[in-house]
Amino acid sequence: MTMKFKLFTLLACSMILTACQVISPIFVDYNGVRMDVAKWINQQQLLNMQQKRSLVQLSKAQQKLYHIEKIKDDEKFKITQENTIAMHCAHLYLTDHKIQQLQSKIFGDAEKQAILEAYNQHFPKIKIDVNTIQCE
Questions:
Q1: Predicted TM-score (pTM) of this structure
Q2: From CA 17, how far away is CA 128, in angstroms rounded?
């Protein structure tokens, strides 16, 4: 009887873990995230749903920087605001290493540094009221 119970418990746990992996996209809205980045985020099995939502929020903001040289001056403030908020939220739930991994996935290792430097040099510096921020 104990062997059957152990086998049943093992099988039940396996099914529950597998079901969580299949269901997880329901709880994280990947709309607006590149497919390869969304798959990468979803494959991060050690992250909880809040951490995945933070990666998605940051991804949506950072993807707008991919063609940074084409961004018009009148769009820069809004993009800076989105990136500042997304980065603040990401730092609440994620390590710097995980954020850098996401940026490498979005921009590629070769272009990442140049894009982030251009962002820091050519976009406005803003301060945000952290009490009014709503993280996804």
A1: 0.78
A2: 39
Backbone phi and psi for residue 52, each to the nearest 5 degrees, phi listed first = -65, -40
Q: Give pLDDT tens digits for 14-65.
A: 666 555 444 444 578 999 999 999 999 999 999 999 999 999 999 999 999 9
- Distance CA(94)–CA(15), nearest Å, equals 28
Question: Which of 95, 8, 93, 11 lies closest to 54, judged by CA?
Answer: 93
Note whether 68 and 39 are within 8 A (CB): no
Give the lowest-confidence range in 18-22, 122-126, 129-133. Answer: 18-22
3-state helix, strand, coil in the chain (%, to 5): 75, 0, 25
